Amino acid sequence: MTSMLTSVNGCKFCDIVKNKKELQLKDKNTCVVINDIKPKAKHHFLVVSKQHISKPTDLTVADVPLLEEMERTGRELLREQLKREGEADTVEDMLRIGFHLPPLLSVHHLHMHIIYPISDMGLISRKLTFRPGKVFKPARELIDQLKEDAGVPDPLEGNPAKDDLHDKIPAQAIS
Ligand SMILES: [Zn+2]
Ligand SMILES: [Zn+2]
C-alpha cells in the first residue's frame, strides 16, 4: 500500500480535494473528478485520488481497487455528459484513459486523465504528450502491470479465447 499520508501542504490537488467542493464534478469514497484546466478534447477530466499519492510509479497491487474506482467514476461522468448532450454512448476507440509518467508529470498527486473524443486532440497531444507509451500510461496497462508484478494469476489463463487478446493493435497505431 502507498503512504498513509493523506494530505500534503501546498499540494494543489490536496487543496482541491479538501477545500474546493465547487470544482468537484463527482465525489466518491476514494476520488473526486475535476475538469482539466487545459482541455485537449471536448471532454477532458482528471480523476484525482483523495489520498496524496505522488505518482503512478508509487502504486502497488493494493491500489488496484482505487484505480478501478477512479476509472469507473470517470467513465460514469463521461456517460452522463454524453447523455445530456444527446450523444451516443461512449465509443471505446475514441476514449483515452491514463496517467502521465515522470518527467512529463506536472502535478505530483495521482490524477487519471479521461479524454474524449481523441479525434479532438491536436497533433502534439496525439503524437507526444498523450500518446500511449513512455510518457503516458493507459490505465488498463497500469492495472495489468501491477497485478502481473505481484504475481496475481491471470483469470484468462487456460481460456481458449485468451489468444485472441494477443492481437491487440499496437499503441502507436492508435495515436
Ligand atoms: Zn496532494
Ligand atoms: Zn497529467
From TrEMBL:
Keyword Hydrolase: yes
Domain HIT: 12-126
Family named by the database record: Belongs to the HINT family.
Position of sequence motif Histidine triad motif: 109-113
The protein, known as: Adenosine 5'-monophosphoramidase HINT3
Entry keyword set: Hydrolase, Nucleotide-binding
Pfam families (alphabetical): DcpS_C (PF11969)
Catalytic activity: adenosine 5'-phosphoramidate + H2O = NH4(+) + AMP
InterPro entries assigned to the protein according to its UniProt record, in alphabetical order: HIT-like, HIT-like_sf
GO molecular function: hydrolase activity; nucleotide binding
Location of the region described as Disordered in the Swiss-Prot/TrEMBL record: 148-175
Biased composition (Basic and acidic residues): 160-169
